[in-house]
Structure formats: C-alpha cells, structure tokens
Amino acid sequence: MNAVREIGRRNAIRGGLALAASLALPSIARTQTSARVVVIGGGFGGAACARALKQFDAKLQVTLVEPNKVFTACPFSNEVIAGLRDIGAQQFGYEKIAAAGIDVVANAAAKVDPQVHRVTLADGSTLSYDRLVLAPGIEVRFDALSGYDEAASRKMPHAWQAGEQTLLLRRQIESMDDGGVVAIAVPANPLRCPPAPYERASLIAYYLKQHKPRSKVLILDAKDNFSQQRLFEKAWHEIYDGMIERISLSDGGRATAVDPATNTIVTEFGDHVAQVANVIPPQRAGRIAQVAGAADKTGWCPIDPMTFASKLLPDVHVIGDACLGGGIPKSAAAASAQGRACARAIVNGLAGKAPETPRLTGICYDTVAPGYAFSLAGLYQPKDDMFAEIEGGGTSALDAPREVRAREAEAAQSWYRTITEETFG
What we know:
Layout: H1 2-13, E1 36-40, H2 44-56, E2 61-65, E3 70-72, H3 77-81, E4 91-93, H4 95-99, E5 103-105, E6 109-113, E7 118-121, E8 126-128, E9 131-134, E10 138-140, H5 164-175, E11 181-186, H6 196-211, E12 216-221, H7 229-239, E13 244-247, E14 255-259, E15 264-267, E16 270-273, E17 276-279, E18 283-285, H8 287-292, E19 303-304, E20 309-310, E21 316-318, H9 332-350, E22 360-369, E23 372-383, E24 386-394, H10 402-424
Parallel strand pairs: 1-2, 1-9, 2-5, 9-21, 11-12, 11-17, 12-13
Antiparallel strand pairs: 3-4, 6-7, 7-8, 10-18, 14-15, 15-16, 19-20, 22-23, 23-24
Helix pairs in contact: 1-10, 2-9, 2-10
C-alpha cells in the first residue's frame, strides 16, 4: 500500500503520465519510416498518443483529427460549477502539438472504412492510414432515460462533457433560490470518472454553504456503493452536515425517467422535484467508435490489452474512456497512460517487434472542499485478456489529519498543471 502510494505521489508530480517504461524512448529498427498513423480525438488520450508517436519515431506521419480548436478538460470542471475556477483554466489549444510536427485537422471524423484503411471527414475529404487510433471519449446516451434527450439537457444539464453544459449548470445554481434542492442523478457503472458525481455534490454543497445555506444537495444513485465512499461520507459529515443526502439503489435512488417541464426526476420509489436537476445519463463510447464498428453490444470497445488493438477491426486501436479496459478507470490519467502505451505498441508493431507488456500507473484526486482532497493510485497490467489492478493505494485512512488532506489538494493542483502542460504544451 505504501509503495503504491509513493508511486501515485511521484506520478502526480509528473502529471500522472503512467507507463513508467515508456518514459524512455524505444530503440527500434524503423522498417516503415513513412507509416501513416491517424488519431481521432484530441483529449488526454488522443493528444498524448499523437505526441508520443512523434517522440518515439519522428519520421512517422501523424495526423490528429479533432473538430474543436479548443479542448475543454473535464478534470477540475466541478470547481468551475462551484464558482471556484474560471472555465478558461480548463481550455487548451493544439498549437504546441502542431508545432511538434503533428498534422492537426480541425474536422470531425464521419466514417471509417477499415478494409481500405480510410477515414472520411465531415467535409467529405479523406485520410488514409496504416494504423488508426480511436480516442473519441464518451457519448451521452440520450436514449437510456425516458424523457431525457438533447433538448431536455438544456433544462436539466448533464455537464458530463465539459464546456457549455458546465457553465449552464453553474448559472442555474447561482440563480436558484436559497432553500432549493440541487438533485444529481447518477448512473450505474461504467461511466467516465466514477467518483466525479460525489466530488460534484461536495463542491456544490460548498457553494451553497457560502451563498445559499438553507439549500441542500440530493444524490439519486443507481449504485449501492461507490469509489472512496467512506472518505466522502466522512467529509460530508464533517463539512456539510445535513446538506447532502444520498439515496442508494437499494433505497430507490435509480432514476427511471425525467420530466423537464417540472424539473422532476422519477425513481422507482417516488418523484423528486428539484430547483436544479443535474441528470447524468448512462454513457457509451464516442459516436465515431459506434459508426466504425469498434464497439460491441455493451456500447464500449473491446481491445487487446497488450496493444490496445481493437478486437473487432483490423489495424485499429482504441484508447481512453471508449475502451473496455477492465479494472482500469475511465479517467484523464488512465487515458494519457493508455495513449503512450498504445503509441509504443504501434511503433514496435510497425518495426516488426513483439509487443511489450504495458504497466500503467494512474492517480485520481477527489476534492470535497478547497484545501481538502484525497487520492487513489493504481498499477494496472494485462491479466486474463483485460486490464487488472495489481496494486492500489491512496489516502484511504479515515483518521488522516487535515494536513494530509491539504497536501493532497496541493498535489491535485500540481498534477493538473503538469498533465495539461505535458499533453497540450
């Protein structure tokens, strides 16, 4: 436990960019010096993969396809919702990535033809590839909750893809009456960043405590248990006593429908009317993964964990939130680690070398108030055709003093600065 905690600490300082072995550039015989690699998706996974590909073999032709000229990061976006952070601190351009010799195409991928190795873009132009990396993140499943669709999300925001939805939820909370209820509907796993709904509840409660102290947060949960539950609940009792209520799956917390007209969330055991309703629906791999045929009936993309190669499409790799990663969480640190590991696997594969076993380390920070955070670190490697956690640790001691929580909060800020600098420059 202590050893893994130290691993997590070191990775926090270095940006959580896991896969220790990939920090040294591989020495390979470059048999395909002009191979074309297209990466779809410019988030933490895709951007890290594109940069690592160029680092590992400068002669590769690397193209990053991303329709947004500015990336808005999800980590720390809960602080934006709580008024603790400006949205500008979440936004990053691709200029430094382009300056590294990567062709950045500001367009959306519309179609993938794996038989002829071609990507068709939204404007009709095409890109040919020798290897394709899909890093599309998640897609919100508007069909999974009765009454919830894209129009409803403008009244009951999900804010699970950072940007305008983040700001919409913030504005709603700022304009609500004191004494109102902010309801958060949380889906079952798998979902992007599993502890994030509870961090969000914590930071919204912090805002309410400062500005609308008669208000409360209601969590309607489709799960009975969640990551680091005891730490969250202890913090809620210490800091927000009585302000946060959680209804678990067994107690009827799973949302089954919504009514945007009345801001009502319907559960199996009753209806809950909220002044602000944050509805987080189930998710699946991003749309291009579905269109390409890389996703299976679960909605996620099965991969070979040794190389991140798709099990459904030839010469296609899938990384980040979109893949079926087994025990490895859907998080920015994990996506970045997978991006570098995938890049190494591709470069070695093009050189005719056998794949190396990836060992991915990652860390997740949860902030429940300014100056109060805890972390969870993990070491993952392939096992039984999936990623499995072989070691784990974090600041899990319930009786840890506040000084420890304060240090974790500082480490979280350092981690964010470093991972965004190393990913986006």
